[in-house]
Amino acid sequence: MACLKVVMFAFLLFFPIKAFGNDPRTEARWNVGFVASLHKQMRLGKHQKSGAELLLFHIQFSTRLHDFQKSPFSKLDLVLVGTVGQSLHPKKNGIYGFEELARFYLKPKKQIEPFFEAGAGVNEFHLKIPELGSTFEFSLQAGGGIKYHLKNHQNFAYIAGYKITHYSNSGVVRPNQGINLSTVFVGITFTPKK
Fold first, then answer.
1. Rounded to two decimals, what is the model's pTM?
2. Quick check: 118 and 141 in contact, CB under 8 A?
């Protein structure tokens, strides 16, 4: 099943499709981004007590799936994310992962483009805390942010936002309380010219 998922998303990456009907305005636009994120554990209950903090770096590849005509949204992008980083607390350990996001952009206002995103992924955690029972962890995330297009360099944009991220092994290994993190992220994206 995991192999089928990899093949499907590789197809989407290398042979972009027009999703949700045949919209002649839909363009398969490529985008690459470099993003840094800081995660701080939310204390939502007695099990969330480790105070985990993570610093992660991401490379994002995105492609346009759909341009909306009659909607508050302007477009939908599929974003594939490779992640590497480390925990800052309780002690320094490596983290690696891969995630897929659906990013919905609202109608732009001048150079500012607000967006909402949600996605899931798989991660290798070398973070030894009681809430996580294994090194293999799934992630779920949802949040939003803005993309600010530079005036003199239209193919570059800054990106910043906030999201909630959840990591757990989905009950594969016990214990599996999981951790919830408050996440801020900043970065830069590059879109090649047509």
1. 0.82
2. yes
